[in-house]
User: What shape does this take?
Amino acid sequence: MKIYRPTTVIVGVVFVLLGGILRLADPAEVLDDSSRQLVRGSIGAPLTGKDFTLTVTRVKFAQKVLQSESDDPDEVLTTEGVFVAVEFEVAGRHLPETIGDLSLETDGGATYEPFSSPSATSATAPAPGFTESQAAVFEVNPADLAGLTLRVTPMQFISYFTTNYAIDLGIPSEDVAADLVAKASTATGQEYLVPRPQLRVTS
Amino acid sequence: MTRATNLAARIAVLIALVAAAVWSIVQPALDAAEKKKETTITEVVSRGPVEVGDIEWKLESLRVYTQLADTEGKKVDVNVPAGASIVVAMMEIKPLDGVAMKNDGFLCDTQLMDDEDNIWKEADSVYGLTLPTGCSDEDHPLTRGKATKVMKVFVVPSKSVPRLVGLITPTIGTLNPEKRVLISL
Assistant: This one.
């Protein structure tokens, strides 16, 4: 009544271990899900996907974040670190859907999630022929800003071959970042007013 | 006897493994086919009437407006960015036997399409018009077997207006539709 002899089981286990070791030999293979495609872009350059064009238009560092011009001083967001506001535009085509969730990544390896209010947490394409501008606000460690990259990660729901986007925000080194952080602490550059999402016809 | 069950068990395991392997290879293709069915237009009719999902549809007109008025003649709030227009599709919708009417209402969503494969959803939150915009409006209940005029409101970039071809139903993304019809003018 023996279906599996001990040798069969051992051979099976060896194969599984071999597979694991082969995968570990290539660390990139382990960290990056190979069923996902990664498209890279940079600030200011339009990134074209299937049903949309995404452009990061502006990155601003600030120490205070206001939701509206008439904001109650008590409700102004403040930080010990630094706020990074990423403004972007999405143009829609065909029948657009949600592109993905937003996050920030640095060369230091940290990943930051955006504030859910007042900023956008995901990139969504508007109806065809329209362009929507939005902003996402992140609270970031000021000592870890080199290689700041905006990541757009679609939800994977029993579907294959999804595309991820990584948009370089143009901060090559900590020196450049330090300048921007210093500017964010001056009186004039301190505050960031979160713009309302705006819809316009794609020109 | 034991040898027979042994063999049967081995074969069963083998079949299960082969099935799992085949499924994992074919699954993406099946997925793609399913996706295609969610977006394919199977039939094109001019104006109608045409029967889709136990509803009879007829497109009477497709007109462009800059603003809409309610029953009292006041301006209706529609979010129209500069360079965009309001497109109103006047339809006659007749629920036939077999359509599920909960509280005298049912779903009759459509989408507007142009010749460049752009698809617009109906503008939501448009209230106070003289005619209903949907088929589950308490103020304008529909009766089975009787055609009712319904206004479908869309907001479209003005430059796309000359390229519009018609309305599609059921909407793209509807799971397993028996057919999808493009009602053109």
Summary: The mean pLDDT of chain A is 83. The two ends of chain A are 74 Å apart (CA to CA). Residues 6-25 of chain A form the longest helix (20 residues).
